[in-house]
Fold:
Amino acid sequence: MKKVILEKKDRAATLFINRADAFNALDLETVLEMEDAVHMVEHDREIKVLLVRGKGKNFCTGADLKYFLTIQRDAVALESFISQINRTFNSMENLRVPVIAVVHGYCLAGGFELLQACDLAISSTDAVIGDQHANYGLMPGAGGTQRLPRIIGRQRAKELLYTGRWLSGKEAQEYGLVIKALPPDELEREVEHIVARIVEKSSDGLACMKKVLNQGMEMSMQDGISLEVRTFLNYFPSEDPVSGLIAFSEKRKPKFP
Structure:
């Protein structure tokens, strides 16, 4: 892989978009490499959390418009590219481990859609976050019209999509797009703190919660609760819940593989 770097440390993996000279814009090769990296994480049972970041000064500015212009009138190539972006983002959304976007600099258009495909996002206060497709006569093609209203509500989503307005990291926190917005010099410490808390948890337990939460959001409340109950009954007799309850009864902290 050249346009993506995958690093692993202490049960956490980090996927870097490695196109700093192009503001970490996404072309076909980049999103293919991103999907490959996600698949590597999926099959590495030692990894408990995935961070998504951009090299250099920015997170991601979306699709590479220079690449877009080369395929604009090629219907087959255009469909292939958009389909691949969605496969990549969907694979990230459905990954068994929590995925955290760590945002700095520009996070725009497709980069904003990438943030939405992650489980959590944390940003620097001076990050610049927004859709901006409308500013150039475009529309989202990587899930932005569907994920965004589910995250922040219909009216706020429409306002951001229709106006193409950019948010600061602080405003993004107020909108519920990021869980925390911190000064740049405090961002790394907070990321390390969140990762440390996640990696001590049960991988299977987190995977079950993520799957039920994501699937339940597409169901009625009652169907979602039924899914939770079925999943709970299937998961509860397994090794990690048993060892967790034993640790609780012995008044000690559980240790999960």
The longest helix spans residues 75-93. The chain has a mean pLDDT of 96. The two ends are 29 Å apart (CA to CA).
